[in-house]
Every structure is written in structure tokens, then in C-alpha cells.
Design brief:
This protein is an alpha+beta fold. Helix content is about 15%, strand content about 25%. It folds into two domains: about 70 residues, Sandwich (Immunoglobulin-like), CATH 2.60.40; about 375 residues, Purple Acid Phosphatase, chain A, domain 2 (4-Layer Sandwich), CATH 3.60.21. Strands 6, 7, 8, 9, 10, 11, 12, 13, 14, 15, 16, 17, 18 and 19 form a 14-stranded mixed sheet that branches. Strands 1, 2, 3, 4 and 5 form a five-stranded antiparallel sheet that branches. Bound molecules: fe (iii) ion (FE) and calcium ion (CA). Calcium ion binds next to loops.
Length: about 450
């Protein structure tokens, strides 16, 4: 784009041919914000589909479809949603996004790793190649989003319905924690990089102007309600967390640092916000879309212990505070939606995972990657051993895909959809497993 401002007209219609336009406006798209447009559209009717497009001069964008929420507290009997994460461009084709586009769901959560910051590797023999070396500048991040957005499957998934997004680490830098980079760069230099990454994220993602970043800060945690049926509390477990303990290496045994009582996963302000908002929620279901696995999974059979220090298992005190809150304050039907680890899991969540008598306080659905990890396998080599060692794990699968959920007053159902390959295009969708959580009964039951 030339470095000049461009006036972009937007219109919202009640029909897919854009005949009944009900709202329109003009936004000046400026080069300082990558010519991105964030139109906050008011005055729409609740709980219905709308269609929209953008116009510049004689050029019109494709038509997108979106949906308004029901009125706050309005009775609502059914919500369908999907969640996805980890779309590494080099690892394969976005076939799962293409299947996601044709699902009958009202909204999509993306739980992070929408892009990856890593260098393109033409020697790796992967199906596609990143467009540059590891990205660190604003221009780099913008060009990486632009590359991902050339993908027609991703375009189709966005055009079909609204997305609620949150990030994990790869939108900035692998396994960063607050102001600490993967390679322990000087703090000031890393915060400049983080500011560039956050700005490009804001520019390219469907975020409202309320989320406009200020330097290296962007408030991404937020909540919304779907009528009286469900409330969603979207977390940011990257921007405010304390450093990973024990050298952040999962080959290390726990060193004691993982029990640091001063550790934080959300930061104090977000943690207060979550407990206040969720504690006051009148909704039938209370769902936490977030990044990294909450369940404390021990990857090593027998008395030895191996846990991931980048997940909640590396943050013992904050995890126990979260689960104790769910167990004692008892917001109705808490369910956690998780991404990050490129595999499918269903976990019962307990305050004390090492005590088989500790009651189940919530359910965790962990969704696999869109592509990260390549073709994958139905049953990872250690799956049986890990499930035997961690009896609160109900399901384990290592293929690519996404999850759809149906929420009704009586149940929340999760359907795990997978594709058998991503290194070639065109894999058919397979619905690999279905689980259900019943109202008032935390923990998942397999239905097929
Ligand atoms: Fe990932
Ligand atoms: Ca063990």
C-alpha cells in the first residue's frame, strides 16, 4: 500500500446479497495502522445473522457474515461454537479451517498461535515456507499476517462467522513470559518487539477499538454473555505471567520453583477481574477460553514426575487458586477451553490432581492444532501410559483438527473433529470423539 490515508466505506445488511443495508459508515484507514479498519457498529438487532463488506472506490471486498449476541440475560436455549488454535503455515494446509468454515456454529474462538514467528525453512521439505527470517519488527509481523491471510481456507473460516480471539506465545516469541523473551534478550529490546507484535495483532485481528495497544500493552482479557445461557471469560496467560520455573525444560524434573507462592499466570489485576466477574455470573454455563493446559499431567509413568513448566502445571499456586475458586465459589458449570499443545485431550479438573479423592470441580476440553506438528497420529506413543498415570484424563488424540460445542441448558457437548493429513490438501473431516458435560455434574462423559 502507498503511505497515504484511504477512506474505506463499510456496510452491514440483513441479507447475503447486501440489498437491505441497515448500517453504513466510512473509516479513514491510515498507514500508521497498516490501513486496518475496526468499525464498531451499533444499533443492530440482537441474536441474528448480518452480512457486511468494505468498499474503496470501485472495489468491493468479498461479503462476510457475522452475528449479534442475544440481549443480556435474554432466554436462550442453544449456542453452537467452535474453537481452534495453532495454525503453523509451514506445517501444512489449513484444511481444518476449511471444514470449520462449513460447520453450523454461531461463533469461533481462536486460542492462540494464529501465526508463528519462526524463520522460513526452505530446506525442511515442508509443504509451505514462511516468508522471512524470524520476525521481530513491525514490518516483519505485518508481512507474516499478510502471508497467512493469503490462505483461502483461513479466509473462508473468517468470512463465515464472528471470531473471538486471544493469543498465546507465537504471536510474539516462543515461550515468552511477560517481558522475558525465549532467549533472555535485554528487557527494553524485547518490549519493543512485543509492542510491534501486539500492534500487528491488533491491526490484523477482529478486535474492537477498546483493545487498541498502548506501546507493549494490550488488554486482551475480556468477557461476554450469550443471553442467560453462557458467559465467556477470555484469558491472556502470556502478557502478565511470571517466568517459567525450573529452566522451562520438560526434560527437567520439578525443582520446587513450580510451587513459588508468588508466581502468577494472569497477573493480579486479571485474576481479580476473573474471580469478580465469574463469581457474579448468573449464567447457566461459565466458560474460560484460554491458552495452556490447566490439568497437571505427569508425562512419566511411575514415581518419577515430568510436567510442562510453560503450562499451568508450572504455576502451582495460581492453578490451585483458580481451581479452589471454582470449587468453593461454585460458578455454575465451569468449563475450560484450551489450545497450545497440538493434541486433543479431555480432562476432569480437580483442586489436587495427586489426590484421587479430590472432587472434580470443572471440565477441560483441550483442542488440537490446525496444522502445527504435521500429519499427526490418532494414538501418540505414550497415550495409554499417560492416561493410566493421570486418571483424570479421559481422552487423548494426536491428529490435527478443531472442536465444536453445543451448549443447551441441560448439557454442553464437545465434538472432536480431525483430519488424517495436512501435508497434502483435501483431507476429509472425521468426527473422532464426542463428550458431554451435564448441568450440575462437572466432568466429561464419552458418548461416542
Ligand atoms: Fe502452537
Ligand atoms: Ca510419574
Amino acid at each position: 500500500m502507498p503511505p497515504v490515508p484511504v477512506d474505506v466505506a463499510w456496510e452491514v445488511a440483513e441479507d447475503d446479497k447486501m440489498k437491505q443495508v441497515v448500517r453504513r459508515g466510512v473509516v479513514r484507514a491510515v498507514p500508521e495502522w497498516a490501513h486496518s479498519v475496526h468499525a464498531d457498529v451499533g444499533g443492530l438487532r440482537p441474536d441474528r445473522w448480518y452480512w457486511y463488506r468494505f468498499n474503496v472506490g470501485s472495489s468491493a471486498s468479498p461479503i462476510g457474515r457475522t452475528r449479534t449476541l442475544p440481549d443480556l440475560g435474554a432466554p436462550s436455549n442453544r449456542l453452537r461454537l467452535a474453537f481452534a488454535s495453532c495454525s503453523h503455515f509451514e506445517s501444512g494446509f489449513f484444511t481444518a479451517y476449511r471444514h470449520l468454515a462449513s460447520e453450523d456454529v454461531d461463533l469461533v474462538f481462536h486460542l492462540g498461535d494464529y501465526i508463528y514467528e519462526s524463520a522460513g525453512d526452505p530446506e525442511a521439505g515442508r509443504p509451505r515456507v514462511h516468508n522471512s527470517a524470524e520476525i521481530t519488527t513491525l514490518e516483519d509481523y505485518r508481512n507474516r499476517y499478510a502471508q497467512y491471510r493469503t490462505d483461502p481456507d483461513l479466509q473462508a473460516a473468517h468470512a463465515a462467522r464472528p471470531w473471538w480471539v486471544t493469543w498465546d506465545d507465537h504471536e510474539v516469541d516462543n515461550n515468552y513470559a511477560n517481558d522475558i523473551s525465549e532467549n533472555d534478550d535485554p528487557r527494553d529490546a524485547f518490549l519493543l518487539r512485543r509492542a510491534a507484535a501486539y500492534q500487528a495483532y491488533y491491526e490484523h485481528m477482529p478486535l474492537r477499538r477498546a483493545q487498541i495497544p498502548k506501546g507493549p500493552a494490550l488488554r486482551l482479557y475480556r468477557d461476554f454473555s450469550y443471553g442467560s445461557l453462557a458467559s465467556f471469560f477470555i484469558l491472556d496467560t502470556r502478557q502478565y505471567r511470571s517466568n517459567q520455573p525450573c529452566g522451562d525444560s520438560s526434560t527437567n524434573p520439578p525443582c520446587g520453583e513450580e510451587k513459588d507462592p508468588n508466581a502468577t499466570m494472569m497477573g493480579a489485576a486479571q485474576e481479580r477481574w476473573l474471580y469478580a466477574a465469574m463469581g457474579a455470573s448468573p449464567s447457566k454455563w461459565n466458560v474460560i477460553p484460554q491458552q495452556v493446559m490447566v490439568a497437571r499431567v505427569d508425562q512419566r509413568p511411575g514415581p518419577e514426575v515430568r510436567i510442562s513448566f510453560d503450562q499451568w502445571s508450572g504455576y502451582d499456586a495460581p492453578r490451585t487458586r483458580l481451581l479452589s475458586f471454582l470449587g468453593t465459589r461454585k460458578p455454575a458449570n465451569p468449563v475450560v477451553l484450551t489450545g497450545d499443545i497440538h493434541s486433543n485431550w479431555v480432562n476432569d479438573l480437580k483442586v489436587d490432581f495427586e489426590d484421587s479423592k479430590s472432587p472434580i470441580v470443572a471440565t477441560e476440553f483441550v483442542g488440537t492444532s490446525i496444522t502445527s506438528g504435521g500429519d499427526g497420529t490418532d494414538k501418540p506413543a505414550n497415550a495409554d501410559a499417560v492416561m493410566a498415570e493421570n486418571p483424570f484424563v479421559k481422552f487423548r488424540n494426536g491428529q490435527r483438527g478443531y472442536v465444536t460445542c453445543e451448549v443447551t441448558p441441560g448439557t454442553m457437548r464437545a465434538d472432536y473433529h480431525v483430519v488424517e493429513y495436512v501435508t497434502r490438501p483435501g483431507a476429509p473431516k472425521i468426527t473422532r470423539a464426542k463428550f458431554v458435560v451435564e448441568d450440575g455434574k462437572p466432568g466429561a462423559q464419552k458418548t461416542s
